[in-house]
Amino acid sequence: MGLALIAVLGVVVIVAVSLLAPKVKVAAPLILAVLGIGISVLPGMPPVHVASAVILSGVLPPLLYASSISLPLADLRSNIGSISALAVVLVVVSAFGTGFLLFTLFPDLNLASAIALGAVISPTDAVAATSIGKRLGLPPRLLAVLEGESLVNDASALVLLRTAIAATAGAVSAWQILGTFAYSVVLGVGLGVAIGYLTVFVRARVPDPVLATAISFVVPFAAYLPAETIGASGVLSVVAAGLITGHLGATSFSAPARLSERLNWRTFQFLLENGVFLLMGLELKTIVEGVRHDRLDVPQAILFGLLATAVLIGIRFVVVAAMTAIGRLPRKTPDPEMLGAREGVVLSWSGMRGVVTVAAAQSLPEGIPYREQLVLIAYTVAIVTLVVQGASLPVVIRIAGVKGTPRERQREEFAELIDHIRLKGAERLDDPALAAVGGGELDPAVIERVRVDSARRSDYAREQSTASDGQGPAANEQYALVRRDILLHERAALVAARNRGGYSSTALARAQEMLDLEEAGLDHSRGGDGAGH
Predict the structure, then answer these.
(1) Spatial separation of the C-alpha atoms in residues 527 and 118, rounded to whole Å
(2) What is the largest CA-CA distance in the chain?
(3) How confident is the model at residue 347 (pLDDT cuts 50, 70, 90)?
(4) What is the 3-state secondary structure (H, E, C) of 140-159?
(5) 257-310: pLDDT as tens digits
(6) Whole-angstrom distance, CA of residue 371 vs CA of residue 113
(7) Are 112 and 167 within 8 A, CB to CB?
(8) CB under 8 Å to 100, separation ≥6 — which residues?
(9) From CA 346, how far away is CA 531, in angstroms rounded?
C-alpha cells in the first residue's frame, strides 16, 4: 500500500510540475530534481534507494527506445560525424581525463577504478537540454545532434565502464579493450537491427492497434536483455531496434496503430523521464548517509565532484571547438546547416548528466576503494550539471544568438510539403487503375469529393504560411473551427444517446472512435503551423 501511494503521489507531482514549468520558464527535470532534494532532507523522510540494476535494465531500455523511435533515421545519418565525435571520442577523452584527476586525488585508488568512475560521469542526458532548446527554438540540426549524442554515448560509457571494471581484476591490453569495444558495438547494433525488423514484421500482421502497441512495450527489453547476456551493448541494440521501428513503421503499421503507439509511448516516456529526475533528488539522503567519514568526508567528496565537473565542462568545450573547426574546413560540397561557433557554445554548455550517471555509479563493485565517495562524486556531477548548466542554458542560448528556423519559414515549409503530397495524390486520382481500389467504375462525384478534401488541406496550409498575425481566420481555418464545433455537438448527441440507451455498446464505441479520429485530424491540421513547439 505504501509503494502504491508513493507512485500515485509521484505521478501527481510530475504532472503538477510539468504544468508549472512553462509558466516559470524552467525545464521540468530541473524543478523535479531540486524538489526531490528538498523532499529527501525533510525530517522523518525515509531513505530512498533504487537498485542500479532496476534503472539500467528496467528503466533505461524503454527510455532509449521511446527516444529512438521518434528520431528520424535521416537525421542520424546526416549528423553521424558530429554524433560520433560527441558520443565516442568525447566520452573516451572525458573518462580518461577525469579518471587521471581522480587517480591523482585518491592515493589508494588504482587507475582502472578511477577510469571506471570517469566512464560513469561521461555520458550526457539530453532531456533537459532538448526541452529547453525546443522551447527556445533551437535549430533542428542542433537538437538532432543532442538527441543522437544522448542515445549513443550511454553505450560508449557503459562498455568503457565494463572494460575498466574488468581491468581492476587483472591486466587488460589495449587490443583487448579495442576488441571488446568492437564486439560490443557490432553485435549490439546487428542484434538490434534484427529485432527491429522482426518485431515490425510481426506487428504489421496484428490488426488490433491495442495488441500491436502492447507488443511494442516488449521490444526494448527483447533488444536489451539478449545483447547484455552475450556481452554486447544492450543500449545500442535498443537504439538500433527503435530507429528501425520508427523508420519502417511509417509504411508498415496502420494509422490507428501509429496513433496508439505514439500516444502511449509519449505518456510512458513522459512519466519515466520525469520520474527518474525526481528519483535522483530523492536519493540524496541515502547517498550522503552511505559515505564513511573515516576515509573521506562528505564536503571533500563534493569538492572532488565539483573539480570533476569543471574538468568535464572544459574537455567538452575543447572537443566541441575542435569538432566545429574541422567542420568549417573547405570541402567539395558545402553544408549550409553546418554547426558554427555559436552553436558550438550552446552544444558545449548542454552537457548535463542524468540517471545513467547515478545508476552506473551505484553498479561499481563493492571492493573498489572509496566506493561510497565515488558514488557521491558521480551524484554531485549529475546534480550540478543538471541544475547549474540547465538553469543557465537559456541565458547562454540568448547570449550566443542561436536561433532556429523562423516561424514564417516553418509555415511555408509545411505548406510546400502539403502541396507536394497533394500533387502526388492528384496524380493517382487520374490513374484508371484506381477503379480497382474503389471496387468498380468510379462515380465522378467521388473523385471530386476526394480532390476537394485534399485541396482543402493544402489550401489551409498555404493560408497559414501567408497569414499575418492579428487578421481574422481564413476560409479553411473557419472550416476547421466550424467543423470542430459541429463535432462537439455531434459528440453531445452521442453522449445523450448513450445515456438514453437503445444502442449497442459496439455501435457507440465505433461512433466515438470515428468522431475522435476526425477531431484529431482537425486538431493536427490546425497545429501544423506550430511545428517546432
Answers:
(1) 44
(2) 88
(3) very high
(4) HHHHHHHHHHHHHHHHHHHH
(5) 888 888 899 899 899 888 888 988 888 888 888 776 656 788 888 999 999 999
(6) 10
(7) yes
(8) 111, 114
(9) 22
Looking at domain 3-330+337-400, its CATH architecture is Up-down Bundle (1.20)
Domain ranges (residues) in the chain: 3-330+337-400, 407-457+471-528
Q: How many CA atoms lie within 13 A of 390 on its CB side?
A: 30
Residue 533: closest CA among 391, 243, 340, 524: 524
Listed residue (320, 394, 336) closest to 146, CA to CA: 320
C-alpha neighbours within 13 Å on the C-beta side of residue 217: 14
- Tell me the Cα Rg of the chain: 26
Alpha helix stretches (DSSP H) within 140-254: 140-168, 174-203, 209-216, 219-229, 234-252
CB atoms closer than 10 angstroms to residue 107: 8
Q: Could you tell me the CA-to-CA distances from 4 to 1, 8, 9, 60, 508 in Å, in that order?
A: 5, 6, 9, 22, 34
Helices 140-168 & 60-69, crossing angle to 10 degrees?
A: 150
> How many CA within 13 A on the CB side of residue 235?
21
> And the C-alpha cell for 279?
528519483
Write out pLDDT tens, residues 281-293: 888 888 888 776 6
